[in-house]
Design a protein that fits this description.
Layout lengths: L1 H33 L1
Length: 35
């Protein structure tokens, strides 16, 4: 059970990192268009 929880928590963490990465890319693209 602990292992499963650890894996799901790790998966959530990875998903969060990917989400942040895409948000940053979107923001950079927006800044680039603004300049």
């Amino acid at each position: 059970m602990e292992i499963v929880l650890g894996v799901s928590a790790f998966g959530l963490y990875i998903s969060f990192l990917i989400f942040l990465y895409w948000m940053a890319l979107d923001f950079l693209a927006w800044l680039y268009k603004k300049i």
